[in-house]
């Protein structure tokens, strides 16, 4: 039996023939195993979905309670048509998991999206031993070396002290990034209210229910607040909100954006970002290559991002690399 017999790419996504299921499929399928709740991995309309309890909850929040025919909770190793399936923490967002498959002596780990840096908003990454490691390649270029996120938050607080008359508006994706940024701001000592866009409220509330301390959060649409009241305050919103008239209600907005892509100055400039915060929920180049070295798989399968540099690195370090070229996966979904 070859590795391809246990898992291989199809137009719908990665398919496991002996288990008869897909992992993070891009189209409705009878049975899906889902790594986490971001929309490029978790879609509605499957016959059955197996995922962590938090991912199932998040999918219900985002898509409605009828997002799938059957929910299957991933608790400990389970057998799916003779394939042993294990969900292990990925460190990406709340509920995120790597999915390990074992069958006839072969082990494949599908990482989904993962991050090695501690994240106060989710469980930390844990290694799943494997013969084949399926890795994302979002930031798979040697130039991507993310700074410590705590230092980026210090830059935000320094800016607030320097410009107390301006509203600091930080763009952050609704699931994961927003809550991580808020938790980091709290850890840095900011105990004042943080104002959030309505699109973040449900997921922030769920994080709090799951034990993530986000402090005093208030809606950024308070009718009793004037433009002057928002001076010197922090507002967190989806990046798309900054292209709407909604921004005008705030005091001389200073636009920030929390993303690994903010390391590229031209991207920040093109978005009109005055305060780029390099905070990523994905592995950078050093953490990606370190992960492969530590796991030491027989093969590295690469998806969802920049494949060429990682393939070249595999070749130079005498590893077997394979590009999967799956369609339908994005670097980071602008939600």
Automatic annotation (TrEMBL):
Gene3D superfamilies: 3.40.50.10890, Ribonuclease Z/Hydroxyacylglutathione hydrolase-like. InterPro entries: MBL, RibonucZ/Hydroxyglut_hydro, Xnuc_lig_assoc. Coiled coil: none annotated. The keyword Signal does not apply. The keyword Lipid metabolism does not apply. Keywords: Ligase. It comes from the Bacteria. GO terms for molecular function: ligase activity; RNA endonuclease activity. NCBIfam families: Xnuc_lig_assoc. This is DNA ligase-associated DEXH box helicase. It comes from Primorskyibacter flagellatus.
